[in-house]
Each structure stands twice: as C-alpha cells, then as structure tokens.
C-alpha cells in the first residue's frame, strides 16, 4: 500500500484501522480492492449507502446533471435541483404520511443537522437544557457531542460539555422499569434537581450506541409526556431513517409526529453529503441566516436524493426490501437457536440489527474474522460489544445469504475458540 497513507494521515483515523485494505470500485453491496479482492459490504458507509454503491439510476441522473453543466455549488440559492427535491420530498414523502414540516438545509453532515435542531429548540423554548438518552450518539461537534453518551468521545472535546441532562433510554433499567414514568416524576418534582429541558433528542434505534431499540409504545409515551410538559421532541433519524428500519421514517409505525426531525447519511442517496432538518411550521422562528453555512443543499445530493425518493413509491422496491428484512431476521433467529439466548442476544428492526455476545470481546473478534472471509461488518456499543449489521437495502438476496454464511462461520470459529 502507499506508505503515505499510514504516515501522513492523523492518528484520528478509525474505520480504516479495522479494515486496512485499499478500496477501488464498488457496485451495490460488493466492494473491490485495488488488488482485486471482493468484499461484501455490511457497513454501507455507516448507513449512508442504503441504496448501495453506485446505484445505476442515481448514477445516470448524476451523469446527466453534470454532463449538461447544471449548477453544482449554489449556496442556498434557488436551483432546479433543489426545486425538484423539495417537490418530491413534500409530495411523495411528507404529504402521503400526513406530515407538515418546513425544510431546513444545513451544512452537509449529520452533526450539523443536530446542531441546528438543538439551537432551534433552545431558541423556541428559551430553555438552555436538552434531554438526551443513555447510549445516545448525535455527532462530534460540541453541541451534538454534549448530547452523546460515549465517555471517550466526550473526552475528546477537551472542555466541559454542558446543558444536557441524560435520561435512561427504553429498557436501560431492565424490562420492568418504565423510564418515561421515571423521567416525568423527576420533571414534576421541584426538588429533583433536574431543570426542564427545551427538548428531548432521541434515536428510535440507537445505531452507534449498540442497536438499542425503543418500543413503539415507549416512543408514543415519551411524546405524550413531552407534550404534557411543554417539551419538544427531536427525532434524530440520521441513521435509522431513509428506509433503514423498513419504512422511510423510523418513527412512522409508532404514529408519532416529532416536532423536529434530523435526516442525513442516506438522504443524499449516492453517499453524497446532504442534511435536512424538518421543523413543525410554528417552530420555524429562525431569523434569515441565523444558522448559516457555505454548503447547504448540495445540488448533486439533491439530484441523487430526488431519484432515490422515487423508490419509496415503487412497490417492487418495497417488496424486495421486506424480503431482505425477513431473510436477515430469520438468519438472526437461527444464530439464537444455535448458540442459545445466554450467549447470543439479537436486536433488529428492519435492516438494522445487532448481535450482543456473552462476552464483550467477541464482537470485535468476529468482525476481524469476518474481514478475513471478506465481509465488512462493524461493531458498535459502549464497549464495542455488539456486532452491527447495516447492509444496503438493495443488497442482492444471494450475496446477502453468502455474506451471512461467512459471518456465521466467523461466529462459529470465535465462539468455539472461547471454549464455551
Ligand atoms: C452518524 C450520526 C450522526 C452524525 O452524522 P455525521 O454525518 O457523522 O456528522 C448523528 N446522529 C446519528 C444518529 C448518527 O448515526
């Protein structure tokens, strides 16, 4: 490999440490290395490649757009690409779901969408505190990091991170404790020491935090409790949204209407950076330019996103996604049957899934072993104790089966090595 890759890039690099291979080309769920090795991709750009690598329909829309000298960078000026995206998003995503939101395009990363959402909630409610949850991950800039749980990542701030109160997520205190009831009791006790937050920010499925899944019932109760107490609800759908859980929004089956929604990662469709904050109309109290930025609304992202959004009106696409979901869930259950619930616990919603093993070090060992078998599958959770499945929604059934077989082999090898 080119030696400057190792010598010149900062110590901060991370994914490439676990998967040290020089990548070259990629098609849907298969990546080819420079030396011609083929890898099955269960990482999918950490959820930014829900439609796979180089999807032919997205690619041809982009090539047309570029080939005809359409405008690429335009700050937040009006462009045809932006107009088409907004029409499609409002017409095919929001309207059929009975959702009414204003659209704010922030800088292109997820953390920027989160910063905007937190700022807006604090401005709207004139309260400095945000309520976040155990094991949450919302991004790396200081405001979003303050609402993220991981102690190592927080330590990277080099300064105190404040104005966030952490509450226990669904299931954090075990199956018999209703954490919503606990939170409400704290908020209504004038001596609990807890200030009322402007908003709760919540992931319906905690991606980085270990594939912890909030029940629909808990989400409904959280929203009702927030409303009773005049607190906003921000759903961070950056990883779980854009179809990852089987529907476009991760919260739609729960039938909740968050006040603010953050989207990024797979929104740009082709792995292109694009972020969007959805704002309940009465909360759109921004002054012009109050949350500004150079790259707000990436036109190439709009073009790919508009094409990708059309998939959500395509019955064949949706049926094939449901088939992949069944395939993954059946495989996960087969792993539980094989090793027992004491050694293997699985959590899944749609095409986001995690396996937590009886020992914390197993997931990383399985990930390394799977990489030897040419499958890219990551770990997540506070102690990297969860093996994380995030394949493209468009993964071919036979390649999916092959990838899962290889992971099963890796699990078998690691578990038999641990001797129990
Ligand atoms: C990835 C992620 C973010 C941050 O997005 P970046 O583009 O990495 O800044 C925020 N929230 C959630 C839930 C994420 O998964």
TrEMBL record:
The first-level EC class reads: transferase
The protein's matches in SUPFAM superfamilies, at most eight in alphabetical order, are given as: PLP-dependent transferases
Q: Name one Pfam family in it.
A: Aminotran_3
Q: Which GO terms describe its biological process?
A: ectoine biosynthetic process
Name its co-factor(s).
Answer: pyridoxal 5'-phosphate
Q: In which pathway does it act?
A: Amine and polyamine biosynthesis; ectoine biosynthesis; L-ectoine from L-aspartate 4-semialdehyde: step 1/3
Q: Which InterPro entries match?
A: Aminotrans_3, Aminotrans_3_PPA_site, Dat, Ectoine_EctB, PyrdxlP-dep_Trfase, PyrdxlP-dep_Trfase_major, PyrdxlP-dep_Trfase_small
List the CDD domains. Answer: OAT_like
Instruction: Give GO MF terms, alphabetically.
Output: diaminobutyrate-2-oxoglutarate transaminase activity; diaminobutyrate-pyruvate transaminase activity; pyridoxal phosphate binding
Entry keyword annotation includes Transferase? yes
- EC number, UniProt record: 2.6.1.76
Q: Does the keyword Transferase apply?
A: yes
* Alphabetically ordered keywords of this record: Aminotransferase, Pyridoxal phosphate, Transferase
Q: Tell me where on the tree of life, at the top rank, the source sits.
A: Bacteria
So what family is this one in? Belongs to the class-III pyridoxal-phosphate-dependent aminotransferase family.
Q: Which NCBIfam families match?
A: dat (TIGR00709), ectoine_ectB (TIGR02407), PRK09264.1 (NF006733)
Question: What name does the UniProt record give this protein?
Answer: Diaminobutyrate--2-oxoglutarate transaminase
Source species of the chain: Paraburkholderia antibiotica
Q: Which gene encodes it?
A: ectB
């Amino acid at each position: 490999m080119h030696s400057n890759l190792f010598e010149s890039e900062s110590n901060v690099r991370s994914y490439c440490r676990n998967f040290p291979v020089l990548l070259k080309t990629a098609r849907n769920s298969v990546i080819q290395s420079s030396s011609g090795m083929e890898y099955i991709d269960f990482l999918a750009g950490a959820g930014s490649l829900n439609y796979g690598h180089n999807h032919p329909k997205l690619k041809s829309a982009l090539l047309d757009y570029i080939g005809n000298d359409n405008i690429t960078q335009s700050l937040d000026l009006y462009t045809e690409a932006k107009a088409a995206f907004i029409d499609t998003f409002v017409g095919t995503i929001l309207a059929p779901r009975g959702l009414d939101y204003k659209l704010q395009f922030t800088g292109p990363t997820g953390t920027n969408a989160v910063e905007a959402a937190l700022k807006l909630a604090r401005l709207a409610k004139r309260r400095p505190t945000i309520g976040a949850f155990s094991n949450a991950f919302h991004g790396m800039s200081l405001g979003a990091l303050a609402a993220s749980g991981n102690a190592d990542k927080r330590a990277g701030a080099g300064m105190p991170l404040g104005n966030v109160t952490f509450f226990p997520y669904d299931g954090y205190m075990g199956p018999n404790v209703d954490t919503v009831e606990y939170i409400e009791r704290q908020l209504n006790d004038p001596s609990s020491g807890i200030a009322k937050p402007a908003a709760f920010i919540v992931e319906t499925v905690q991606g980085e935090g270990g594939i912890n899944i909030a029940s629909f019932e808990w989400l409904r109760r959280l929203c009702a409790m927030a409303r009773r107490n005049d607190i906003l609800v921000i759903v961070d759908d950056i990883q779980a949204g854009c179809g990852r859980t089987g529907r476009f929004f991760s919260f739609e089956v729960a039938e909740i209407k968050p006040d603010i929604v953050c989207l990024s990662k797979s929104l740009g469709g082709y792995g292109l950076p694009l972020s969007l904050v959805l704002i309940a109309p009465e909360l759109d109290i921004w002054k012009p330019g109050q949350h500004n930025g150079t790259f707000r609304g990436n036109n190439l992202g709009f073009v790919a996103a508009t094409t990708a959004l059309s998939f959500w009106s395509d019955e064949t696409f949706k049926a094939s996604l449901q088939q992949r979901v069944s395939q993954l869930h059946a495989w996960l259950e087969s792993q539980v049957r094989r090793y027992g619930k004491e050694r293997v616990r699985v959590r899944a919603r749609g095409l986001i899934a995690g396996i937590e093993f009886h020992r914390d070090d197993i997931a990383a060992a399985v990930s390394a072993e799977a990489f030897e078998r040419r499958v890219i599958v990551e770990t997540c959770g506070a102690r990297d104790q969860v093996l994380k499945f995030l394949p493209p929604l468009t993964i071919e059934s036979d390649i999916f089966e092959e990838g899962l077989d290889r992971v099963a082999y890796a699990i078998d090898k690691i578990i038999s090595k641990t001797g129990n």
